Amino acid sequence: MAKIFPMNGTRLTVAGEETCFEGSLEFTDSLIITGKFSGNIKSSGYLEIAKTGDCVVDEMTGSNIVVSGKVTGNITAEDSIELCSGSVITGDIKARKIKIEENVLFDGKVTMLDDVPAVDLFSMSISDYKQRMKQTDNQDKQFGV
């Protein structure tokens, strides 16, 4: 059973331990999987695979992804991936920021994604460029980088 909670202006859905589903999953808000999932996950929001979560995917994509459980398949995060202690990951991971705690079993390849500017740097003023760099620094501090 899924429970829905308000979270920082977005909605958080929790798929409970007794939940078992397969197919293609697409969402924009936040999701915590504590049960089993098989298929593909495409998200522009936050995704967490809890300690009891077990996912077998061809591809898992999201903005920020936290894995405490088990994932078999490739994971791509637009921003960050966090592999928590006790997690088991078999597959490749790609992200701008990656945090791997102790006691993680990981079998795969890591690819660090580059920050690509949203605008042509040669067409912006120096003050606009400095402002953009400040925003990037503030985002890095928010995620402890």
Structural features:
13 strands; mainly beta; globular; 145 residues; single chain; 13-stranded mixed β-sheet; 55% strand; disordered N terminus
Query: What is the SS-derived class?
Result: mainly beta
What is the terminal-to-terminal distance?
36 Å
Q: Tally of extended strands?
A: 13
Relative strand content: over 45%
* pLDDT < 50 stretches: 1-6
Helix tally?
1
* Overall pLDDT score: 85
Q: What percent of residues adopt helix (DSSP H or I)? A: 10-25%
User: Radius of gyration over alpha carbons?
Assistant: 17 Å
The geometry reads as globular
Tell me the major beta sheet. Answer: 13 strands, mixed
Q: Could you spell the SSE succession in H and E letters?
A: EEEEEEEEEEEEEH
Q: Work out the oligomeric state of the chains in this entry.
A: single chain
